[in-house]
């Protein structure tokens, strides 16, 4: 019987086939990893506390979208009187109506506040004190992350909005917080504070970089948190700084490089999940 001689596959064909298998396996592993990471982030961050906030007044800045909006919804669901401090009052009022309808809580309203203007902050506090006789929880959530710009008063905008505006707002509301004690101040921070550098000789940040400006503002808010807690904790005003984690918010549309918004929506936490972390800090009776 004649033997059949088989020709070996060309070397290039074998290499191409192997490359396809390896590439497909690698891509599948990456996609599976992203999916599992997403599920881990979505289902492991829970606020199991059933504590309610009936009779409590909460003020939250930057609540028309993102983490602020999700947090406002969660607090309204627990019975709090929630006041949204918003730069866009028309949008703020629409968000307030939506939250009120979804949570069946009629005590959700919006007030105009521009943290880039010190005069506007003073006007807001005056109006707030005329309308409200207590403030149990202040959430400094609003933030700016974008190209170089200045506040109305001439400060670098990221530093002015993220830190100076919230510092001034908190300072002016201190008497109401003390009157409502025990009360809480929650400052939104970020783990990017570790990259921040505070140079008081360069507050305008001459060599502007978005990430440098952002990390500097978050470092400043951490210093403020520590000092506020040291000075006011004896008055039963407790101050906390919260890093909600990597969250897929609209702010990330301006994020340079790898973590632009579309991929981040797959592997970052949702706004609702991040709100659970903040809610726990607000309602836990074990934090002082």
TrEMBL record:
The chain crosses the membrane at residues 16-37. Keywords: Membrane, Oxidoreductase, Transmembrane, Transmembrane helix. One of its GO terms (molecular function) is oxidoreductase activity. InterPro entries: NAD(P)-bd_dom_sf (IPR036291), SDR_fam (IPR002347). It comes from the Eukaryota. This is Retinol dehydrogenase 12.
């Amino acid at each position: 019987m004649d033997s059949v001689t088989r020709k070996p596959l060309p070397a290039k064909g074998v290499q191409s086939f192997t490359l396809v298998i390896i590439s497909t396996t690698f891509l599948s592993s990456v996609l599976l990893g992203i999916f599992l990471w997403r599920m881990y982030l979505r289902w492991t961050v829970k606020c199991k506390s059933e504590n309610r906030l009936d009779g409590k007044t909460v003020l939250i800045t930057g609540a028309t979208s993102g983490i602020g909006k999700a947090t406002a919804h969660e607090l309204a669901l627990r019975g709090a009187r929630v006041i949204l401090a918003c730069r866009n009052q028309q949008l703020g009022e629409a968000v307030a109506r939506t939250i009120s309808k979804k949570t069946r809580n009629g005590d959700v309203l919006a007030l105009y506040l521009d943290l880039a203007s010190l005069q506007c902050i003073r006007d807001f506090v005056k109006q707030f004190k005329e309308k409200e006789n207590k403030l149990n929880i202040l959430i400094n959530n609003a933030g700016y992350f974008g190209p170089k710009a200045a506040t109305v008063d001439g400060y670098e905008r990221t530093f002015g909005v993220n830190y100076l505006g919230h510092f001034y707002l908190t300072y002016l509301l201190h008497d109401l917080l003390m009157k409502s004690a025990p009360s809480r101040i929650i400052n939104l921070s970020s783990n990017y504070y570790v990259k921040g550098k505070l140079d008081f000789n360069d507050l305008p940040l001459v060599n502007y970089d978005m990430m440098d400006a952002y990390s500097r503002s978050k470092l400043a808010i951490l210093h403020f948190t520590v000092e506020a807690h040291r000075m006011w904790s004896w008055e039963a005003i407790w101050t906390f700084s919260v890093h909600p984690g990597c969250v897929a918010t609209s702010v990330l549309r301006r994020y340079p490089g790898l973590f632009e918004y579309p991929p981040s929506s797959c592997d970052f936490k949702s706004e609702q999940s991040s709100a659970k972390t903040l809610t726990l800090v607000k309602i836990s009776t074990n934090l002082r």
